């Protein structure tokens, strides 16, 4: 059955983009060879991508919908210069894993807990800086801006900015669309489904309401094959008594279930031509049953794990909720347009992680007298809430001078907790050492709570002078003032003699000005050459580790400073003979790199500064039509590495990462390709076929000197295909994702880091590969109205 569906979809797609394209082109030699351009607002003015004087890519919402893009990972892999660590649905909201131009030093396995440092790539939902990974529903377009963007956007960035622009309510039309999807993922025992709907309702001639909703339910594909059977208290069963090492195991098939609910309501009011207001509220909740991450090799009993097996001895569910409220106002002042965005969001979640392998491989289980049936659970939470105001004044008048002036204010509260438990240890201790029962207080052996308050204020702007219709120069500046406060609590409550709750506080502040310079020249009718030098900045913060008491750390761990980049870029873009081209050379100098890590004594989650790096390379893209078929080709070369050793803030002779080490997560070579073709049959049915592919070369799992983390990850390629039949009132799309079922590994928990250790009583394994979504076959029915 699978082979039949796969062959049908691929055959239809390839035949449409190839043989039918050539045949129709022969019949119509004067066929249109122009390329449709996406209008963007990256420069805070509406412009075609080709008229923006730096390297930007845009993907229209129509293209996202037609290709039935499943998630942000699939979307961003189609954009040259962008790479993503694919952690699946379970960790999609915890940390931002998007990388642009190789600016990353964090290990691919980070993501279970909220790290201290801000991500190098910022993301926006409309005009709100927020990393939310909302479902890709009712999207107008996605803009990918490479390089620092602090002179045009309130939230600064090091590597670039991703903007998700949602569709606005339309004042003059009633309409919408409903969709239903059924899909089957390789390895899964069930069928997943999704239901989506959007309706646009005019309210008179000056207002409109737009409502969007989505439900997604997927049965999972990862089998947790040797989890402990638990009693009513959540403790591993002891079938031969609590002092016996015997345990009972069971298997849970397709454990990584996915349940996502998304909704958005937007109310637009335009009481006059000069005033436009939109009030919007969006909310998403995720309930995930486990990891889409698989274990290789054998377990402690000598059994070989299957293709989609996970060796954890416990289930690892997660949940999260994110909500966003925004009021966006546009006021036409005549000489300029004033735009205000007032927003607030609340993003929080929790998860359970298997930590037993980490305990076993670090020898920690001896600290618990080799307690039998070890099951170490890390229960983690994260929270991110903020109130934000961003205001901009953009000139409208004709003349040689254009300007953008803006102000930004953000009050953000971040939180992260971890409560670790060795389930059943207290019960076993009481039976094994009754005379010392009072020494062990509970199963909880680690308590951690970090709270951070950030206040960010900034003024930013750009001034452009047009020397002629073809030559212009732009200067930009950003001044910011940041304040941060951090509070940390930690305790090791398992043993009475070790319990010593610790609280620490620390405050920091920083202010600075950043600059940008750009010159561009229009050559020919549709050609643009440009060069840019821009500075990027990422705020520092307070780690707030204790310096006195039982859990004292060196005072030099108490804070971390900002890191900065200088981005040099030169490029060409334009249209020639119906071919759109875009190529850019870049060189990025990165100083005082922020590395997310832990303190050496007691494992506080901290960020540190260390060393320098540089990234250089080429981004290139071609788009056009060949005999009626539309194609896109992209290539990225990235050479990113440390240019000096990185040491901990306490110094020492041994670096944590060495000069010349490749920065992790970003491939040296990446290629994207896409083809699509439409043809109308004699009965009026429109057929559209699409094929897309992505290839990336080898990457590194980490930059650290540790061989347990810094391992190579193999190259891979992922191919997708779809075929759509559009009838008078509805359409049907048959799609196949990851046709050749590539693993697509973008991160690895190695065996030496978290693997099995039967000598210590741990027969499971925490080692795992972060794989891409396996081959997925689906059918979507769309009905617009």
Any overview of this molecule?
The chain is 7% helix and 51% strand. The chain has a 22-stranded antiparallel barrel. A five-stranded mixed beta sheet has the order 3-8-9-6-7. It has one domain: Beta Barrel (Maltoporin, Chain A). It is globular. A hairpin with a 3-residue loop joins strand 19 (318-332) and strand 20. The chain contains seven helices and 43 strands. The chain has 785 residues and is mainly beta. Helix 1 runs parallel beside helix 2 (19-27).
Question: From the coordinates shown, what is the CATH architecture?
Answer: Beta Barrel
- Give the CATH class: Mainly Beta
Specify the number of helices: 7
Unreliable sequence segments: 1-34
Radius of gyration: 27 Å
The largest β sheet comes out as: 22 strands, antiparallel, barrel
| Helix-and-strand structural type | mainly beta
Q: Measure the end-to-end span.
A: 34 Å
Helix content: under 10%
Q: Shape, please?
A: globular
Looking at CATH, the homologous superfamily is TonB-dependent receptor, beta-barrel domain
**Could you say how many structural domains there are in total?**
1
Average pLDDT taken over every residue:
92
Give the assembly state of these chains.
single chain
Q: Which fold name fills CATH's third level, the topology?
A: Maltoporin, Chain A
The beta-strand count equals 43
Strand content: over 45%
């Amino acid at each position: 059955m699978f082979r039949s569906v796969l062959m049908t979809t691929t055959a239809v797609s390839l035949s449409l983009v190839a043989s039918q394209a050539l045949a129709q082109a022969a019949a119509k030699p004067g066929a249109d060879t122009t390329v449709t351009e996406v209008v963007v607002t990256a420069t805070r003015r509406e412009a075609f991508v080709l008229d923006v004087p730096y390297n930007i890519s845009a993907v229209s919402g129509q293209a996202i919908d037609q290709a039935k893009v499943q998630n942000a990972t699939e979307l961003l892999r189609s954009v040259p210069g962008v790479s993503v660590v694919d952690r699946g649905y379970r960790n999609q909201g915890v940390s931002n894993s998007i990388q642009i131009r190789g600016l990353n030093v964090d290990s691919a396995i980070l993501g279970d807990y909220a790290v201290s440092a801000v991500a190098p790539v910022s993301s926006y939902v409309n005009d709100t800086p927020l990393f939310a990974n909302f479902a890709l529903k009712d999207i107008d377009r996605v803009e990918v801006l490479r390089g620092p963007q602090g002179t045009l956007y309130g939230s600064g960035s090091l590597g670039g900015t991703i903007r998700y622009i949602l569709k606005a309510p339309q004042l003059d039309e009633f309409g919408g669309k409903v969709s239903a999807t059924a899909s089957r993922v390789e390895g899964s025992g069930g069928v997943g489904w999704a239901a989506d709907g959007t309706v646009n309702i005019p309210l008179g001639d000056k207002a409109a309401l737009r409502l969007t909703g989505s439900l997604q339910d997927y049965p999972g594909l990862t089998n947790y094959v040797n989890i402990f059977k638990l009693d009513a208290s959540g403790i591993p069963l002891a079938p031969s008594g609590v002092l016996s090492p015997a345990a009972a195991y069971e298997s849970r098939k397709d454990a990584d279930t996915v349940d996502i609910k998304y909704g958005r309501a937007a109310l637009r009011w335009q009481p006059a031509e000069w005033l436009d207001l939109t009030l919007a509220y969006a909310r998403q909740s995720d309930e995930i049953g486990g990891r889409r991450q698989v274990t290789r090799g054998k377990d402690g009993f000598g059994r070989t794990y299957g293709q989609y097996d996970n060796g954890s001895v416990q289930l690892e569910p997660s949940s999260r909720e994110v909500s966003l409220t925004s009021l966006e106002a546009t006021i036409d002042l005549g000489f300029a347009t004033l735009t205000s965005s007032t927003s607030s969001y609340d993003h929080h979640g929790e998860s359970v992680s298997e930590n037993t392998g980490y305990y076993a491989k670090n020898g920690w289980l001896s600290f618990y007298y080799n307690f039998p049936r070890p099951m170490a659970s890390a229960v983690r939470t994260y929270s991110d809430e903020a109130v934000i105001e961003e205001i901009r004044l953009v000139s409208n008048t004709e003349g040689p001078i254009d300007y953008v002036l803006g102000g930004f204010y953000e009050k953000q509260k971040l939180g992260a907790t971890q409560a670790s438990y060795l389930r059943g240890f207290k019960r076993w201790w009481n039976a094994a050492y009754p005379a010392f029962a009072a020494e062990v207080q509970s199963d909880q052996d680690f308590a951690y709570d970090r709270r951070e308050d950030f206040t960010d204020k900034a003024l930013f702007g750009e001034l452009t002078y047009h020397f002629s219709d073809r030559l212009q120069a732009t200067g930009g500046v950003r001044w910011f003032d940041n304040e941060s406060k951090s509070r940390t609590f930690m305790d090791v409550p398992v043993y009475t003699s070790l319990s010593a709750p610790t609280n620490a506080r620390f405050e920091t502040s920083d202010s600075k000005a950043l600059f940008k310079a750009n010159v561009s020249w229009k050559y020919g009718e549709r050609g643009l050459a440009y060069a840019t030098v821009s500075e990027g900045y990422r705020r520092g913060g307070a780690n707030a580790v204790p310096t006195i008491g039982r859990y004292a750390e060196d005072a030099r761990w108490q804070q971390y400073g900002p890191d900065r980049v200088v981005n040099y870029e030169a490029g060409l873009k334009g249209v020639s003979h119906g071919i759109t081209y875009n190529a850019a050379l870049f060189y990025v100098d990165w100083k005082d790199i922020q590395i997310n890590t832990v303190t050496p004594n007691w494992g506080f989650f901290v960020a540190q500064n260390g060393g320098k790096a540089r990234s250089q390379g080429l981004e290139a893209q071609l788009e056009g039509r060949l005999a009626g078929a539309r194609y896109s080709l992209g290539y990225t070369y990235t050479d990113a590495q440390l240019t000096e050793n990185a040491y901990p803030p306490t110094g020492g002779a041994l670096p944590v990462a060495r000069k010349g080490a490749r920065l992790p997560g970003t491939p040296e070579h990446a290629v994207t390709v896409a083809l699509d073709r439409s043809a109308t049959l004699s009965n009026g049915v429109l057929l559209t076929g699409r094929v897309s592919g992505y290839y990336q070369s080898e990457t590194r799992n980490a930059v650290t000197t540790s061989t347990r983390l810094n391992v190579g990850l193999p190259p891979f390629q992922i191919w997708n295909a779809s075929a759509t039949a559009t009838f008078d009132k509805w359409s049907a799309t048959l799609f196949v994702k990851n046709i050749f079922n590539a693993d697509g590994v973008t991160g690895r928990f190695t065996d030496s880091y978290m693997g099995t250790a039967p000598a210590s009583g741990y027969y499971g394994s925490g080692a795992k590969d972060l794989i891409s979504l396996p081959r997925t076959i689906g059918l979507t029915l769309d009905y617009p109205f």
